[in-house]
Every structure is written in C-alpha cells, then in structure tokens.
C-alpha cells in the first residue's frame, strides 16, 4: 500500500517538474527575445541570469556608462494587470539586493557606477520596454 502511495507522489512530482521545466523554458525563450530586442536598441550584454543568494537578475546590460539591470516578465495577456504589474514592490526589493550583490562582487557601488532598473514586459507577441522602471 505504501508503494502505491509513493508511486502517486512520484507521478505528481514528475508532473510538477514537467510544468516547471516548461515554464522555465518559456521564460528562457522570452529572456532571449528581450535580449535581442535590447541589443537592437543599442545596449550591450554583460551577463545573462546573474544568480546569487539574494536573487536573480535576468539580464545585465550596458547603455553607455550606465549598467542596466533588466527584469523580463511574460504574460499571455494583460488580464490581472499584465506583465508589468507582476513586478511587485517585494520583487523590486529583491532585484535591488541582487544588483547590489553584483556591484559588490566587482568592487563597485551605485555612487561609482551609474545604474538603472529596466523592465521588459512581454504580453502575447508584444514587447514593452520600460527604461528606469523602478
């Protein structure tokens, strides 16, 4: 009987893992689209998917002398506020902390290095770039 219960749990975990994998794959796809869009706008890629214990930054780019920390959000449509509305104040704080970590890891701080936070909101097939979003 315990085996049947365990098998059921394994199926559930496998299904959850598959959904997470599909979601991550979709996220990667939109991050690449956002990257290509921003490259077309003249920004230069510095780092993809910067990860630290404080969070993750999808893209770190450079616009002239300014370091640009980019959050990419995708929503199928704009119901429930859309992609831009999904970047809550808590998420913004997490991104700021990860950005400070990135700067510190390179011996920099925001007084030495001009920085900004941009948002690329993908809704359906539309891309909306919001420079200096927060």
UniProtKB/TrEMBL annotation:
Residues 1-29 are annotated as: Disordered. Signal peptide: none annotated. Residues 1-10 have a biased composition (Polar residues). Residues 11-24 have a biased composition (Low complexity). It holds the Pfam family UPF0102. InterPro entries: Restrct_endonuc-II-like, tRNA_endonuc-like_dom_sf, UPF0102_YraN-like. Belongs to the UPF0102 family. PANTHER family: UPF0102 PROTEIN YRAN. This is UPF0102 protein GCM10011502_07170.
């Amino acid at each position: 009987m315990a085996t049947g219960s365990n098998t059921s749990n394994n199926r559930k975990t496998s299904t959850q893992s598959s959904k997470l994998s599909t979601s991550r794959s979709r996220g990667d796809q939109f991050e690449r689209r956002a990257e290509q869009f921003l490259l077309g706008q003249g920004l230069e890629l510095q780092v993809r998917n910067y990860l630290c214990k404080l969070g993750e930054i999808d893209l770190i780019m450079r616009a002239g002398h300014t370091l640009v920390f980019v959050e990419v959000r995708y929503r199928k449509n704009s119901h429930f506020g859309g992609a831009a509305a999904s970047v809550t104040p808590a998420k913004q704080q997490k991104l700021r902390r990860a950005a400070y970590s990135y700067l510190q890891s390179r011996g920099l701080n925001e007084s030495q290095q001009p920085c900004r936070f941009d948002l690329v909101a993908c809704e359906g097939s539309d891309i909306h770039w919001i420079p200096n979003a927060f």
